[in-house]
């Protein structure tokens, strides 16, 4: 694709050829990303019979909201759908997902900004080594520690609780949050805190009243990343949850995906519901997230 | 760039009031601030990774918790000599290779396109967030439905265009099941790489292109001698992030193919999961998992050296 984007088809029409290739490339990428999801959205408004028509109907002949209502009012639609059990589980699973993701985000804010402050402001022995250790921690594959975590949670009696999910999600979010906060807090001018301290604030109130408010963009980015990676997490949720008291949305969706008898319309409606919260957050905080992704990987 | 600044050594006098309680040492205070993160990661990452290795040296099955025998490296011998190992290692490496190549080529093109000021640019940049924000299970659901053997969009599209003579079970045939999971993974992981490359593209000074133009470089020349050298580092980061993700691939396999048909799409990660949690043989399952950890470790070392080399982290 790189060569098409740049290569003019004809030498004489260099500029127009180049811009034509760029427009063609842009349209290609827009379709490549949008079409698969559009198909999911369109299917979620079809009746079950229409969704199974061969050849497929791209645009629904008859638009129905029943697939979504089945999630809201399972009792009314419960019997008419295959896989309605999963739909009945959805509201509780959405609540579980939200509780876990919000808890993880809040804990990351506290843990990440404390450690991040140390890296940004204090010259201490072993700081570079410690920062590298955080990075190394992040690379430990979940697959390698899943059994041990399972046994730990079993011993502590935490299996099938939201606490097990929160604790296990902290393992991969905290190292990243420390990095985000460390690099963001470094950009805040030191004079700000010094002035506050000279004015008689103690360290705690300086942090709360002066430093953290200025650091809001970094804090938001930190919380967003933690929320999103927790919302969609699958492996730990698969292992540590067994009933609705802790099952999260990805597990309920997975039930749809792996069950061959599931109603495709219900499955697709569930998929749309699960993607809405992270997608809305991503759109709201677009600039911040893009900067964060670039900063986390390219330059601090 | 994240090391503490030298100038912090002279802390303001007022701050010493808190420093005094902590033994007048900025180091002690720094480690106190790091304590929650360190304790958490010691308990939930460092201990488990050691414990996992210890378990991998034992015969231990969750269904027979009374049997716990130290067997040295027997589990590793069993894994490496099992019928499943060569195949699953091959699938994992090939999956990683094709995902990485696919993402790199597509992401490079997308970054170049998204770097141009066109009417489509804002749409494209916003749409990039969709696969990035989409949970893995929803990605899997989407592709499962696209690849559906009867009502799937791919069958309908290709058949109506006359490109396939009959509907196919994409996920159930050995040759296409593999291609299908690579496609799904590329779709899901591409935006991150585009954003990384795009951020780097935006830092290229325009004068470099002007200078190259003056020197008579055509559009290929400018790409070859200005753009590409500037992108070497972000491209390496994309390669490593993709490799780390590919080696540990599990979710998409579990959801789309279940490792099948037969073992045609069984990866190391899927084998580790099946051994530990379906066969409940956690001793051997951890031996599987540790082979993944060792592969990851090798890549991670390269990654760290790279970050050091670039000056992101200074000692």
Give the termini distance of chain A in whole angstroms: 29 Å
Helix content of chain A: over 70%
Structural class of chain A: mainly alpha
- Radius of gyration from the alpha-carbon trace of chain B, in angstroms: 25 Å
**Please, how many domains of chain A?**
1
Order of helices and strands of chain B: HHEEHHHHHHHHHHHH
Can you walk me through this structure?
The complex is a heterodimer of chains A (300) and B (315). With 300 residues, chain A is mainly alpha-helical. Chain A has a single domain (89-299), classed as MetI-like (MetI-like fold), CATH 1.10.3720.10. Chain A is 75% helix and 0% strand. In chain A, helix 7 crosses helix 9 (162-185) and helix 14 (249-258) runs antiparallel to helix 15. The longest helix of chain A has 38 residues, at 84-121. Chain B is mostly helical and 315 residues long. Chain B has helices at residues 16-21, 26-56, 74-81, 84-114, 121-127, 129-133, 136-146, 153-160, 174-201, 206-214, 219-247, 251-256, 268-278, 282-310, and strands spanning 58-61, 64-70. Chain B has a two-stranded antiparallel ribbon with strand order 1-2. In chain B, strand 1 (58-61) and strand 2 form a beta hairpin. In chain B, helix 4 packs parallel to helix 9, helix 4 packs antiparallel against helix 11 and helix 10 (206-214) crosses helix 11 (219-247). The model of chain B is unreliable at 1-14 (pLDDT under 50). Classes of the chains: A mainly alpha (300), B mainly alpha (315).
């Amino acid at each position: 694709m790189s060569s098409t984007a740049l290569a003019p088809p004809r030498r004489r029409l260099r500029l127009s050829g180049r811009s034509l290739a760029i427009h063609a490339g842009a349209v290609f990428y827009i379709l490549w990303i949008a079409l698969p999801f559009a198909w999911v959205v369109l299917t979620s408004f079809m009746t079950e019979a229409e969704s199974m028509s061969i050849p497929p109907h791209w645009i629904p002949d008859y638009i129905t909201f029943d697939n979504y209502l089945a999630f809201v009012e399972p009792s009314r639609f419960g019997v008419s759908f295959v896989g309605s059990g999963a739909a009945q589980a959805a509201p509780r699973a959405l609540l579980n997902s939200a509780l876990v993701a919000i808890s993880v985000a809040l804990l990351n804010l506290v843990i990440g900004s404390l450690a991040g402050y140390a890296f940004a402001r204090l010259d201490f022995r072993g700081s570079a080594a410690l920062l590298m250790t955080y990075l190394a921690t992040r690379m430990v594959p979940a697959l390698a520690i899943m059994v041990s975590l399972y046994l730990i949670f079993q011993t502590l009696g935490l299996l099938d609780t939201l606490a097990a999910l929160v604790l296990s999600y902290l393992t991969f979010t905290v190292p990243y949050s420390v990095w985000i906060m460390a690099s963001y807090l470094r950009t805040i001018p030191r004079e700000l805190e010094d002035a506050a301290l000279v004015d008689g604030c103690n360290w705690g109130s300086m942090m709360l009243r002066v430093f953290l408010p200025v650091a809001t963009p970094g804090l938001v980015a930190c919380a967003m990343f933690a929320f999103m990676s927790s919302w969609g997490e699958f492996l730990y949720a698969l292992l540590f949850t067994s009933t609705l008291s802790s099952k999260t949305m990805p597990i309920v969706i997975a039930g749809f995906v792996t069950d061959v008898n599931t109603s495709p319309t219900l499955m697709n409606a569930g998929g749309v519901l699960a993607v809405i919260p992270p997608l809305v957050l991503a759109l709201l905080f677009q600039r911040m997230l893009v900067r964060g992704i670039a900063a986390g990987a390219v330059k601090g | 760039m994240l090391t503490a600044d030298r100038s912090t050594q002279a802390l303001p006098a007022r701050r010493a009031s808190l420093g005094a309680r902590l033994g007048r040492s900025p180091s002690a205070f720094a480690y106190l601030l790091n304590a929650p993160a360190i304790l958490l990661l010691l308990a939930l990452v460092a201990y488990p990774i050691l414990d996992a290795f210890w378990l991998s040296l034992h015969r231990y099955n969750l269904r027979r918790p009374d049997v716990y025998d130290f067997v040295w490296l027997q589990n590793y011998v069993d894994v490496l000599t099992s019928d499943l190992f060569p195949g699953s290692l091959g699938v994992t490496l090939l999956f990683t290779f094709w995902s990485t190549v696919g993402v790199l080529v597509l992401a490079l093109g997308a970054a170049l396109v998204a770097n141009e000021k066109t009417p489509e640019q804002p749409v494209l940049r916003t749409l990039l967030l969709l696969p990035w924000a989409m949970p893995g299970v929803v990605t899997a659901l989407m592709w499962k439905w696209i690849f559906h053997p009867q009502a799937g969009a791919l069958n309908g599209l290709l058949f109506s265009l006359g490109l396939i003579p009959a509907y196919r079970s994409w996920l159930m045939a050995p040759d296409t099941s593999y291609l299908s999971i690579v496609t799904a993974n590329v779709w899901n992981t591409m935006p991150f790489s585009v954003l990384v490359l795009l951020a780097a593209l935006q830092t290229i000074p325009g004068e470099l292109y002007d200078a190259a133009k003056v020197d008579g470089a055509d559009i290929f020349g400018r790409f070859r001698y200005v753009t590409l050298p500037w992108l070497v580092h972000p491209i390496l980061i994309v390669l490593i992030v993709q490799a780390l993700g590919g080696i540990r691939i599990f979710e998409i396999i579990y959801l789309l193919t279940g490792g099948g048909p037969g073992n045609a799409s069984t990866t190391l990660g899927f084998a580790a999961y099946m051994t530990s949690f379906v066969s409940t043989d956690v001793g051997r399952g951890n031996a599987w998992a540790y082979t993944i950890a060792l592969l990851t470790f090798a890549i991670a070392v390269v990654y760290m050296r790279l970050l050091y080399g670039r000056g992101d982290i200074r000692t």
